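Need residues for this backbone.
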């Protein structure tokens, strides 16, 4: 009681001094502003209460609904006792072979290469991703006007941004391959991000498409066929394969011809390494990220897994971008003619130039000061 009286006297003395210094009107405004600032001061007490309650509920849930153990197939089994950290890690872990949804009861083959007509969970999730992309594109582009609406603006912003990025890397020749670049990027990006959604990869029915090596190999083979078909279509069969099986070096001697032919054959064999690197890089990064996220989720509480999800969000974006960029660059390299063809083309053009076009340059060069 004495402290409250002392604080009231102190507050009244401060108000009297403020009125003497500023006048009654300004003093009342200053006191009101100070009171308003004091009333708007943020209070962290509700946040702390919610955090404490969340921890209490989390601890109580282990006793009210105890976690189940997992069987040999990493499936939750109420008859299996829970053991930490083994059950916690295995419950968030997925094997490389995806679960087969159709036909029912069918299991994936353990062979390295096999022909098996089935629908695994990764293909099913990939279909969902494709449906989401098509539906969003249809909704955003259902009415294309000269004065774009908000949805059309978003669609054009994304497409033009990716198109400008592709042309900045590959030049004007990359403009014709922008639709393929965008299609690869969007499908792989949403396929990667689907593995970060709750339940995806933790249930048998859903799994990120790019965490299955079969899907990444399929994407790489499509890219492999693309840049070789484009190379033959632009350069012709002879012109395209002439870059690898080059016999023009024999004009300079047997040794030079053998070296040029060996380098060309080596480059041809390296072409078959491209789909391997494309597929394994994408699969390895996505699958390893999901394993790391599952292990950390099983060993720790909420804060660290949330930070790990943010990191995986960025890494998945980069992996989609890398796959799309490499596909674009390999295609542009495939349609580029051989340097010997460039040289022969320039020499032939110089031979067919009239003398009047060459004489000024020669005469100008002869008149140049030493």
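Answer:
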């Amino acid at each position: 009681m004495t402290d409250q009286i002392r604080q009231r006297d102190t507050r009244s003395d401060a108000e009297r001094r403020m009125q003497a210094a500023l006048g009654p009107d300004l003093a009342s405004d200053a006191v009101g502003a100070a009171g308003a600032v004091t009333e708007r001061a943020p209070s962290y007490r509700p946040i702390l209460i919610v955090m404490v309650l969340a921890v209490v509920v989390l601890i109580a849930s282990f006793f009210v609904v105890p976690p189940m153990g997992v069987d040999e197939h990493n499936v939750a089994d109420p008859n299996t006792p829970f053991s930490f950290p083994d059950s916690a890690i295995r419950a968030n872990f997925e094997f490389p072979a995806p679960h087969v949804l159709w036909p029912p009861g069918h299991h994936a083959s353990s062979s390295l290469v096999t022909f098996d007509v089935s629908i695994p969970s990764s293909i099913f999730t990939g279909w969902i991703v494709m449906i989401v992309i098509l539906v969003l594109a249809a909704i955003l582009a259902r009415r294309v006007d000269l004065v774009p609406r908000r949805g059309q603006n978003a669609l054009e912003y994304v497409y033009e941004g990716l198109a400008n990025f592709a042309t900045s890397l590959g030049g004007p020749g990359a403009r014709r391959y922008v639709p393929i670049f965008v299609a690869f990027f969007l499908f792989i990006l949403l396929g990667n991000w689907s593995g970060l959604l709750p339940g995806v990869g933790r249930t048998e029915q859903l799994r990120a498409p790019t965490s299955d090596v079969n899907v990444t190999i399929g994407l790489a083979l499509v890219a492999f066929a693309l840049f070789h078909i484009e190379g033959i279509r632009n350069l012709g069969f002879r012109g395209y394969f002439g870059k690898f099986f080059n016999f023009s070096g024999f004009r300079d001697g047997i040794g030079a011809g053998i070296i040029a032919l060996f380098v060309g054959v080596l480059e041809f064999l390296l072409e078959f390494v491209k789909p391997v690197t494309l597929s394994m890089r994408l699969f390895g990064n996505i699958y390893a990220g999901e394993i790391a996220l599952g292990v950390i989720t099983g060993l720790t509480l909420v804060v660290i897994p949330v930070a790990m999800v943010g990191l995986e969000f960025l890494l998945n974006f980069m992996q989609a971008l890398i796959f799309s960029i490499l596909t674009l660059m390999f295609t542009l390299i495939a349609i580029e003619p051989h340097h010997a063809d460039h040289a022969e083309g320039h020499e032939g053009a110089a031979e067919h130039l009239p003398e009047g076009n060459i004489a000024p340059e020669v005469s100008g060069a002869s008149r140049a000061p030493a």
